[in-house]
User: Fold these one by one.
Assistant:
Number 1:
Amino acid sequence: MKVGYARVSSNGQNLLSQIESLEQAGCEKIFKEKVSGTQAANRKELQDALDFVREGDTFIVTRLDRCSRSVLDLYKIIETLNDKGVSFKATEQELDTSTSTGRLMIGLLSIVSAFETDLRAERQADGIASALKRGVRFGRRTKFDDEKTVKAIQMQKDGMTNQQIADHYEIGRSTLLRWIAEYKKREGHKE
């Protein structure tokens, strides 16, 4: 059986041309959805189509990007199909996993996917290192600082409990005590 899958990214787009192409390719059942193609796991109709196909079936899309925008996701989808004994075909591109050339292309896609992932991780690490050198701080901003620590120490001297002070600054008691200890240690080293 030939099973089709048609997808567009938004409700404003039309599935008609994809459906016509899939019908011309002989698809007996077509799964359709209007959702982003970035993550396969978030697409119910795609998951239903992958569950529906059986050994000997052909899963057909018009173009690779209709199946997935992520090479890694695409490879996982095709791997799922291969495990079920289902071939994959794109009508507008020369990709058919029932042929040796199609299987080669899928292998190349997996290598490219791994390469893209490595490059992305390297660029991200370089960007973070560069930002840290420029003094950029990551994470949420702290609710507490040295100025508040000095005030908290004075509040202790005025008789407030550590919990009352922590509640006043909307921080945990252990956070308050850590800030005070670190501040006193730094100030102690300066003397």
Note: The longest helix spans residues 100-133.
Number 2:
Amino acid sequence: MKPIALKLAGTILIADPSGAIWWPDTRTLIVADLHFEKGAAFARRGALLPPYDTRATLAALSALIQRLDPVSVVALGDSFHDARGADHLHGDDATTLAALVRRQDWIWVAGNHDPAPGPALGGRVVADALAVGPLTLRHEALRGASPGELSGHFHPKAGISIHGRRLTCRCFVADETRVILPAFGSYTGGLDVRDPAISGLFPGGFDAYLAGKTRLTMIPFPKGTRPQQELPLD
């Protein structure tokens, strides 16, 4: 794995190709938009998806926790796809998730999909924003927020061309004031970083860090420009 160090409000954060942020000074792992039980939520509406999203997301999260051994885990909202998601966890998945939550201090930040996420699974629920040292952790970026904001919500994605082939990848979006994390969940779509909902939060431009299998590729998005270069991605 080849992570990238980001500096935010004087704090060094590690952007991991998995889509998570690792804060080494506090041994805190930060993930966004797990969307557990999205497949089940769609099935209840008649749109059938393979029912393996929760298990795949749990496997990725378990591997990350095993690798980094965090003291704290913060889930930045939309951990479940809807307010009933925790109730619909398969027995084995519920056991796995509860065991992960017990391993360390676990904080659920409420999102728009899950206003009261996972209380039966343990951990603490934060309704709005969590202040930790110089950083503020919330679900959705707040316009005009003080420097040091970490958030999710938008599922940012960006595209690159590789030998004439266009690929779209989930990505981190960052400037000197805030970082938006990609969605960690297996069944999550994405919003192009050039969409005003994202780009409007970065009036001076931003960098996108596209997540490959083992490393991140940085693409600058200066104010008012669109990159047209071919970059390697693995």
Note: The first strand starts at residue 4 and ends at 8.
Number 3:
Amino acid sequence: MNFPEQIKYTKEHEWISVEGDVATIGITAFAQGELGDIIFIDIETVGKEMGADQVFGTVEAVKTVSDLFLPVSGTILEKNPLLESQPELVNQDPYGDGWMIKMKITDAAQLNNLMDVQAYKALIGA
């Protein structure tokens, strides 16, 4: 399983990568593996300002639907347009083409509350 070192992780299995005050967010390889084949991503929060831990969308797999939680507070700038027609990208490349949203962070200090790769590996027993 792939665990990029340069990103932060949440206990809800989202990842966040930050450049300046813009963050890219998706779900981890562990999460997509647990969900199975992803068939639909529903994100209707573009343009909204939201708080950390709020639900920004859902991911639907063959067996279940799961909420997607924001790791930090901010405004949703865009959703990944490729996921409309290719939701399986989340299974194939969760840290690359399978990203879900980009957001403008309003409180960068919240990043300190997230896990590094070693803490995340410990959480999932990897």
Note: The mean pLDDT is 96.
